[in-house]
Automatic annotation (TrEMBL):
GO terms for biological process: inositol catabolic process. Keywords: Isomerase. The keyword Lipoprotein does not apply. InterPro entries: Deoxy-glucuronate_isom_IolB (IPR024203), KduI/IolB_isomerase (IPR021120), RmlC-like_jellyroll (IPR014710), RmlC_Cupin_sf (IPR011051). This is 5-deoxy-glucuronate isomerase. SUPFAM superfamilies: RmlC-like cupins. The gene is iolB. It comes from the Bacteria. One of its GO terms (molecular function) is glucuronate isomerase activity.
Length: 297
């Protein structure tokens, strides 16, 4: 499970999607991601099948129609410019998207059919996590406590240039409670990256780095150099750090889903590095944060 976990932009394209990662393509059961690139006046209609999805503007704006509901997404100029509004569309639905720009559609197989809904940018909880060179911003737009779904969980992370995020390394591959009270959930996870100053498909664009490594029981070994539009799949193992090169901010969209009956992001740190969290108490948060405000476009 170490091959085909880094998917550069363009390697998974299948019209109308500029990027398509289905559970089958990933080799697992639940989590998926698509990216739609619309020209001015563009329009796409598709069926969700057995998946619930979000429509999240990465750059641009769109109108989403589903079950007779019309949702106007004001969007944003880029992922580094603002927190965005978004739309939720359920399984077994027909969806039409009109607009211009680049839109991400995180997804997962769902058992319940919920109603389509609009998520306002002003309601997105923005968290500053870590400190010092491990400072980052987390936009918890579809975290378990922020927005209701059947199984889908998704958040955005913004890491200032030179900083590390997804750190200390952590994993969520087993449903278990440890003797010390820590709780871990089994979750599949997708990382979708953008880098400031880069555009998807530019092989000479600025880079970041993503690490994934395993245990003796389940070995995995990935160190991916990522550019705008790239994806890294995390089927199991410790993941982190996500490294932003000096001079270039790093963005990633996390898509998570698993078999558990309750939506969660429960994870456990690599015990060799968990002590790093305690070191943050004496360090200030990077003054470049928040990078995109706290929920207002």
């Amino acid at each position: 499970m170490t091959a085909d976990l880094h998917l550069p932009w363009g390697t998974t394209a299948r019209p109308p999607w500029a990027l398509e990662v289905t559970p089958e393509r990933a080799g697992w059961t639940y989590a998926g991601l698509r990216v739609l690139v619309l020209p001015a006046g563009g329009e796409v209609t598709f069926a969700t099948g057995d998946e619930e999805m979000l429509v999240l503007p990465l750059a641009g704006a769109a109108t989403v129609e589903c079950d007779g509901l019309r949702m106007e997404l004001a969007g944003r100029a880029s992922v580094f410019a603002a927190v965005t509004d978004f739309a939720y569309v359920p399984r077994d639905a027909t969806v039409t998207i009109r607009g211009e720009g680049r839109l991400a559609l995180p997804s997962t197989r769902a058992t319940r059919r919920l109603s389509p809904r609009y998520g306002a940018a002003r309601d997105v909880p923005v968290e500053l996590r870590g400190a010092g060179s491990a400072s980052r911003q987390v936009n918890n737009f579809c975290a378990p406590d922020a927005f209701g779904c059947d199984r889908l969980v998704a958040v955005e992370v913004l890491t200032p240039g030179g900083n590390w995020s997804s750190y200390p390394p952590h994993k969520h591959e087993d449903d278990r409670t440890y003797d010390d009270g820590r709780v871990e959930a089994a979750l599949e996870e997708i990382y979708y990256f953008e880098v400031s100053g880069g555009v998807p498909g530019d092989p000479a664009g600025p880079v970041g780095y993503q690490r994934v490594y395993g245990t003796d029981r389940r070995p995995i070994d990935v160190l991916a150099e990522v550019r705008a539009g790239d994806v890294v799949l995390v089927p199991y193992g410790y993941h982190g750090p996500s490294m932003a090169a000096p001079g270039y901010h790093l963005y990633y969209l996390n898509v998570l889903a698993g078999p558990g009956p309750k939506r969660t992001m429960a994870c456990v740190d690599d015990p060799r590095h968990g002590w790093i969290r305690d070191s943050w108490a004496d360090q200030p948060v990077d003054p470049r944060l928040p990078m995109t405000g706290t929920g207002a476009l």
